[in-house]
Amino acid sequence: MQNEKKPAVLVIDDDTLILESMILTMAARYTVSTAESSDSAMEKIKVQAFDAILLDVKMPESNGVEHLKKIKEAVKEVPVIMFSGVSDIAQVIDCIKSGAFSYVVKGRDLKELYEAIDIAIMSSKPEPKKNTQNTSKSENATCIIGKSSQATMAFEVARDIAPARDISILITGETGVGKEVLSRYIHEHSGSKNSPFIAINCGAIPESLIESELFGHEAGAFTDAHQKRIGKFEAANGGTIFLDEISTMPIHLQVKLLRVLQEKKIERIGSCKSIPIDVRLIAATNTNIETEISEGKFRQDLYYRIRGIEIQLPALRDRSEDFELFLTNFVTYHTNKYQLPTKKISKSLINLLKMAPWKGNIRELYQFAEVLVFLLKKETEITIQNFPKQCLTRLLMDYSMLKKNDISVQKAIMRRTIDAFQGNITATAQFFNVDRSTIYRLLGDEIPADSP
Predict the structure, then answer these.
(1) pTM for this structure?
(2) Is residue 133 assigned to a domain?
């Protein structure tokens, strides 16, 4: 355990004393970097990968929401935790609605800060891939077809087309809907299921490295190329290569990819030798490629080449009949993984969670279930009454949505939210976009008269 790499955390605050304090108190648990301004933070984000970011709500050159948006544009997968004084709670709520993972209050117990960071990192990390090049059946817990007509049709088309290895497939859909899961499903139902399956996120690889990643290089091909490297296409020979976020691929590489797909040959960087390959391509995108083409960002000829058949996966909000199936399966999966007591989820909580936005779709729900199981280790039933306050910001619903539930559910979730905001009725009202009087009408004498 001592050799485990510590998570990298960037702390952004204009107060140098706070930054120095953070370094001293967090160094044993995290690798801490600091920035005193938005510009300094953005420079560090460009050159270093972080597991989590702590952002002060009040920065001299911009407010928290503006800075948060810049950060999420640059590193959308990295969780951002806001930290501020209690007086800033209204702005913190705005930040959460703008993409912040959670918030912590300055000066509170370090345990609360560490818990917020650890939960954010756990929730945002991708599920570990077991034997990416292994062709045995995937153990991915998210491989659930469900009952919704759109998802069922997508998997039926995938299964029908799977044996036709010469037909390229383009999978479309929002982030987190299960595009890689579907690509593995296709591979496992094809004639090459015992050959390699290699997945690559084109958007996660720096532009300067992606050509080498895909096609390999010879020793001495460029600075730091000290030895020969086999590219992903060559490694996937005989099997399937999955190119996620293909729309982010640089134009000059799109030309080379098109040639590889047409000629079924690759050339490593620094070599003139052509190497024959037999690879089934499955590509995926969460953008509208036709719009990218009209803007000159994607080649039309490559689009037609990778779009032998297009399969669109629906968002989680469009398959509400599958929500309970996904949630209960994920809770069971994580319960078994951590060897914890079997857990049942109350129907009222499932119905409430179903109303949440889930902008990260199935992937977000999967990670949320892991946090839920982890925080309620000893519980055998997960209900609204014991729902962790750290997870309340995931709901992000207004009161009109909450009112669709039974009055007992409304009261229970309102109590948990007030508790999460340390008894602050004004902050709770802002969270639900209602007046304080609405909460008083709902809970009546349960609320102390002197509540803030």
Answers:
(1) 0.67
(2) no
